[in-house]
Amino acid sequence: GRQGLLRHWGLLGGAAAALAAGLYVLWGPTGSSRRRRGLVPGLLNLGNTCFLNSLLQGLSSCPSFIRWLEDFTAQYSTEQSKSQEHQHLSVTLLQLLRALSCQEVPEDDVLDASCLLEVLRVNRWQISSFEEQDAHELFHVLTSSLEDERERQPRVTHLFDVHSLEVSPVIKGQRGPCVAGSLPPVLSHWKAQHPFHGRLTSNMVCKHCEHQSPVRFDTFDSLSLSIPAAVWGRPMTLDHCLHHFISSEAVKDVVCDNCTKIQAEGILNGQSIENQKTTFVKQLKLGKLPQCLCIHLQRLSWSNQGTPLKRHEHVQFSEFLVMDIYKYRVPVHKPSPRTPEETPGAKDGTAVKPPEAEQPPGTKPHFMNGASSSSSFLKSPGTFPLAAFPECRTPRYVYRLMAVVVHHGDMHSGHFVTYRRSPCPRPALAGPGQWLWVSDDSVRRASLQEVLAASAYLLFYER
């Protein structure tokens, strides 16, 4: 099977090379002319690889992610590692994203991303290009593989950080080198988590005694939101999905240590009692918001007969996204007069949740993040329109839409396309807010109105 697969890939690689050569003969090196038109390179479809192409176009529109990859791959610039660069996912991914974001000059209008599939196979991922795949699953494959690569890196001080160990700290009033104390902090910036990395908080409170269990933290690289049942005559918005995600739920038959302790204190002679089981209220919040936010709208549903169905309804989203009311804040048990500097959240960046933030499903969202019809969004694409958020004059967690991945078709077959911001300058015609529509090797300009009307599957925001 492996030899047959390699044989197929060899034939496919030859066909791709022939196609690339044909494009070059027909059009010549037209990459510069495409960039002059404010467009980006397209990607060859190697056989049902639109899921890969659409995701790469989306990731290449996130500058923070590209900068992180540049810092991350700086360790591989030494001569010792150059021979193994092709085995590193981060290096291959960075080269593709830089070309798709017009930071490097590609030879052709159309790029070949088969090198990324090959390096994923080296990392033991079995990804077939001959079957329908999912862009969101591939996103998880890339982020988890980058985390694995990060964990494989040596934990000793890197060559680039030797200078930080050579500099002796000077204490005020002390002459000569400092012998006591710890070494200066090592600047291992490439050890930092990727910018899609975030943390969820899980809060459990007993309904009987109101005792709160310790807050649990879980990591995430994308928010996978289910689409709640639609209310007739009311459009579905991204806020509805976010509120549904963090809405509290009752968890029955949970052992409450506090209720058990209270019960035990009321019994004499030290008699043993059974653990008290009560109902807890569980709620999710966002403990750490990432620099780059990937939102996945779950469009898979199941019929009564157990067959998969796709939900096609439009979920309204906006160019700007405010996430303050979904951010976890540490509860204050003993309120007391505080200065602005002592206000909870002022030091760690967490936002204080307004009283009206917890709303029942179906009510008007506090921030109206799904109000794509707001004229203030369409009139000022380069600045954040505070007028659209009258209840929050100073939001802390403001995100800007960078790309939208759309899936056309049903659960069995279809096609992925991407709306993305153009990184290529077109000073004579448009500013940095220009949008593009990309379908494999086809690229054209698009309007913001067209983007916001799309049936989104993946949303890429950057803070």
List keywords for this structure.
single chain; 463 residues; Cathepsin B, Chain A; disordered N terminus; alpha+beta; 21% strand; 28% helix; four-stranded antiparallel beta sheet; 13 helices
Helix content: 25-40%
How many β-strand stretches? 18
How would you sum up the global shape? globular
Count of alpha/pi helices: 13
User: Which fold name fills CATH's third level, the topology of the domain at 37-75 and 86-148 and 194-329 and 394-462?
Assistant: Cathepsin B, Chain A
Low-confidence stretches: 1-31, 156-190, 334-365, 372-383, 427-431
Assign the CATH superfamily of the domain at 37-75 and 86-148 and 194-329 and 394-462.
Answer: Cysteine proteinases
Tell me the major beta sheet: 8 strands, mixed
CATH architecture of the domain at 37-75 and 86-148 and 194-329 and 394-462: Alpha-Beta Complex
Average pLDDT confidence is: 74
CATH class of the domain at 37-75 and 86-148 and 194-329 and 394-462: Alpha Beta
End-to-end Cα distance = 45 Å
Strand content: 15-25%
Structural class estimated from helices and strands: alpha+beta
Q: Report the C-alpha radius of gyration, rounded.
A: 26 Å
